Amino acid sequence: MLLTEKQRDALTELINIAFSRTANSLSELTGDRILLEPPKVDILPIENISKKLGEELNGEVATVHQIFTGPVAGDALLMLDYHGAVRLASIVAGEEEIEVDYLTPSLKEVIMELGNILLNACLGMFGNLLQLHITFSVPKIHLDELNAILDTLVISQEELKYALIAVTRFRIKDSSIKGYLVIILGVASLEKLLESLDKLG
Fold first, then answer.
1. What is the pLDDT of residue 1?
2. Rg for the chain (alpha carbons), in Å?
């Protein structure tokens, strides 16, 4: 499905606002300045996600997954390559001076909290600005290959069809870590989202 220029701009602006709020929340939480670059946003058929993300997410992927329901329903995921997740969590947890090369239970908690803040900010922004009531599930963290994660996605009674992908970079201290926000929608939900965006004028 092709977005009009106006719809792409509106979606990018919505997500950018949510990312800015997320960055502020994370900075207050950690005491370090955290920036999220303006996102690059696209919508593509779900069968193309693996190819699109697989070029950069090789091996094990750290994913925070949240299901949301309401007039717009689907799956929301924050995806980081494993080493990027370890690095980001270590910095946020203040453990960057310690040699850590895997996600300890405490670092998994940090990644899940980061994902929870980011996903709730984006989905909450959609709900508020589009005047849609959206309910969130409890977030879960998964460590697995990309295709294994994509195979587990659940959406209530709607055929999975499209994915909204926003690519950004977390910038904190001297590190730059690439992250992927993926929101997977059925046909009816995507139509509702675009219809609501058009009403924003």
1. 58
2. 16
Q: At what angle do helices 105-129 and 5-30 cross, to 10 degrees?
A: 140
Q: Please give the single-letter amino acid code of residue 32.
A: D
The arithmetic mean of pLDDT across residues 137-153, rounded, is 88
Beta strands in the chain (DSSP E): 34-36, 40-45, 60-69, 74-81, 135-136, 140-145, 160-172, 175-186
C-alpha to C-alpha distance for 186 and 5, rounded to whole angstroms:
22
59: tokens are: 């091996």
pTM over 0.90: no
* Residues contacting 24, CB < 8 A, separation 6+: none
Q: Which two tokens stand for residue 133?
A: 């009531």
CA angle 122, 52, 169 (to 5 degrees): 45
Q: What does the block give as tokens for 117?
A: 């803040």
């959609």: which residue's tokens? 126
Nearest one of 159, 167, 184 to 48, comparing CA atoms: 184
